[in-house]
Design goal:
134 residues, mainly alpha, 2 domains, 6 helices, 55% helix, 0% strand, transmembrane, Mannosyltransferase
């Protein structure tokens, strides 16, 4: 029940489709059109880029860029708290009820899933690296 408010943008999308707004993202007035939009079928479900240019090393390359820019984006001030937090999290893994285990697991899950599915050709064009970083 707590997740229902997160679905309100999709309810609005169904309502707004009947008003035919300019610049809309496809016809969402029918269930088929809505599912095409929701599943991103024009781009590939769970894919960011519609082109075929995808590196087989996307996960490794994208995660490397993420870690490389992590320190600079935090003005190098976040490295120490990050290290302390990781040390505490790794030290508390023995206790299964530790919230640090959940947070660390969510972060690793995000890194693996997002960087494997983000099929932007970051190795060929810098603009795609900038988009990926955002």
């Amino acid at each position: 029940a707590a997740g229902l408010p997160g679905l309100t943008p999709y309810a609005f999308l169904l309502w707004a489709a009947n008003h035919r707004p300019l610049g809309s993202w496809g016809d969402t007035s029918t269930l088929r059109g809505f599912m095409v939009h929701f599943l991103r079928k024009e781009y590939g479900t769970f894919q960011l880029y519609s082109g075929a240019d995808k590196s087989s090393m996307q996960l490794v390359e994208a995660t490397g860029h993420y870690l490389m820019y992590l320190a600079g984006d935090g003005l190098y001030l976040g490295v120490v708290p990050l290290g302390v937090g990781l040390a505490i999290a790794l030290g508390s893994i023995r206790r299964r009820s530790s919230p640090a285990v959940v947070i660390l697991g969510a972060w690793i899950f995000y890194l693996v899933v997002f960087h494997s599915l983000s099929n932007l050709p970051i190795h060929t064009q810098k603009i795609f690296l900038g988009i990926h970083m955002r």
